[in-house]
Amino acid sequence: MGLRAQAAADAKAILNDAVGGAGWNLSLFDPASPTVAVPFVGFVNDISLTIDPDTNEYVSGRRVTVALSLIDVEAAGLSGMPDAVADTTGRPWVVEFDDATWKVARSMPDRTVDILLLELEAYA
Q1: Structure pTM?
Q2: Mind listing the domains of the chain with CATH numbers?
Q3: Cβ-contact 84, 108 below 8 angstroms
Q4: Please, are residues 29 and 37 in contact by the beta-carbon 8 Å criterion?
């Protein structure tokens, strides 16, 4: 196994560890079949206050991201997420946690280590 394949396998193991690690259980909904939940475990960042690097002051805003194993996403047969730019057309991809539902604003695949980073927005 090469270095990149080993890194992808390690990332998959870390992202899927909901028991001893920082993984969160979530469901991903494809707009083509919005009633079918595809379960995943992923690493979640939810930053509600950010610091302005120029002034070192807190600024308002919230940034929520989810990192998933790209291997798992492709194995589930999911494709067509908004890629690196916001998708404003049609029904959105949706990520659902036990207590919150978010719209996928952008997806940023990293093929080097097979991680898919989803940037989320509030969804009503």
Answers
A1: 0.81
A2: 3-122 (2.40.10)
A3: yes
A4: yes
pLDDT, tens digit, 9 for 90 and up, residues 43-87? 998 888 778 788 888 777 788 899 999 989 989 988 777 665 565
3-state helix, strand, coil in the chain (%, to 5): 15, 40, 45
Do residues 96 and 27 touch, judged by C-beta distance below 8 A? yes
Side chain identity at 53, as an amino acid letter? P
Calpha distance 123→104 (Å, rounded): 9
82-116: per-residue pLDDT in tens? Answer: 665 565 667 888 999 988 899 998 889 998 899 99
Helix (H) or strand (E) holding 38: strand 37-47
Number of residues written out for the chain: 124
